[in-house]
Structures are given as C-alpha cells and as structure tokens.
Amino acid sequence: MSKVNNIIETELLSKKKGAVGAIIVAAGKGNRMGLGYNKLLANLQGRPVIEWTIRKFVLSELIDVLVLVVNPEDKNAMEGICKPYTDKIIFILENGGDRRQDSVYNGLNAMPEEVDIVLIHDGARPFVDRKTIKNSIKYAREAGAACAGLPAKDTIKIVDRKNAVLSTPDRISIWHAQTPQSFRKDIIKEAYESAREKGIFGTDDSELAESAGFKVLMFEGNSWNIKLTTAEDLLLGEYYMGLSKTVY
User: Alpha-carbon distance 134 to 119, whole Å?
Assistant: First the structure.
C-alpha cells in the first residue's frame, strides 16, 4: 500500500466523523478491449480513462478518501495520474488481486478506520455523475447497502444451456446493476469476510452483501454511466464525451 498524500492529511481525517471513502477498481487487464495494456490507461479525449473516473469522485467534493486498486505494473503510471489531485483528497494506492473480488477486499483493508461509508466503483465507468455519487452516500447511510442501477426496458428471457426459453420474468422486478455500490463499512467488510470463509464468489459487491443476509436497496442511476469494456465501448465513450456539456 502506498499513500500518495502526506501524514498530515491523514491526521486531519481522524478528526472528522462520518468520513466517506471510495474504492475505484483499476486492477483489471482489459483483455476484451484488445489493446495489449490496461484499458484504463487508454486515451479518452486527451486523458486516460481512469483519470476521468478519478476526477468525477475528486471534484464531486463528496469523498474524503479514495483508494485506487491497481496492477503493480501500472502503479507508477497511476501515481502520476493521481498527483494533480492530491491537494484535494487523500489518495491510497493498493495492489489488486487475482479477481475483482480480491482487489476490492484489498481496497477495503486499506481503507482508514475513520471511514464509515464506502462506495465501490468500476474504474471503467468514467461517466458517473455527482448526483449518483451523492445518492450512493445518502442511501448507504439510510439503508446500509445500496446499488445504483436502471430498471430494465427490454423484455428479459431466462434460457437453458441450449438457449431454449425457460421463462419470461416480470420486467418490473428486473434492474441492470451499475456502480457505485455503497455500504456502511462494517456491512461490506462483514460480507467480504463471510464470502471468503464460505468460498462464495459474486459478480458484484451487492451480491456478497445479499449472500451475507443484508438487504440491498436499488436506486436509479444514470443511463450514461456505461462500462467501457470493448473497443466499441471506447468509441461510444468518445461520443459521450463530445456530447457532454460538463467536462470536468
């Protein structure tokens, strides 16, 4: 673990009650984008993808500590990306693990004890907006666990391994999950410890909270909050950035 900020700023955090932390997961390889390097370092309108994501959290002025979970081989590049913002927020860089779940676990363990609310966000979602960040904090405080998402617009089909339709669930009960997913820190740490003990692997953080017996509140996010996964997504990201009237 490396702290980008100095110890004085960390001491200031200890005097604040109800601090908010964010974990941005940036340790993936991004193989599906086919770049040959971490997709989060790809250029998007003059900045690396991950910088746009970081800026949204830093400039929201809603976050006290940002833990960036990275590949060790990317750490120098990530430190350079964080440097212009270290006067605005406490940064902690932490090494990722073999899976996203391991990376988030490392990030949770790196989070200062003064933090009460933790937001977990995919580094490849650079279009998250301040309203979604604010609502993530609000609903985590109220419900203990919350997940940004969008109600399904399309009819959903459940199929078997041969793609034969098994059922058509009521669309009103189907949501597409996004990030941030936000939690009281004690809840998400308990969920992750429980998952490790039981050998549970989830596709997102809310699933681990659910498996540990916690109720998760869904709330409406933003349709622009897409995840850049493929080369086509990066082109879509360029288009969205060009449309955006508020470029941080």
Answer: 10
Q: What is the DSSP string of 207-236?
A: HHHHHTT---EEEE--TT-----SHHHHHH
Cα 106 from chain centre = 14
Specify the amino acid at residue 200: I
Domains in the chain, number: 1
Residue 248 lies in a domain: no
Between CA 5 and CA 87 the distance in angstroms is 8
What is the mean pLDDT for each group of 10 consecutive residues in the chain (248 residues)?
A: 51 70 88 74 93 97 97 94 94 95 97 96 97 98 98 94 96 95 98 96 96 98 93 88 65
Contacts of 242 (CB under 8 A, 6+ apart): 45
Which CATH number do you get for residue 86? 3.90.550.10
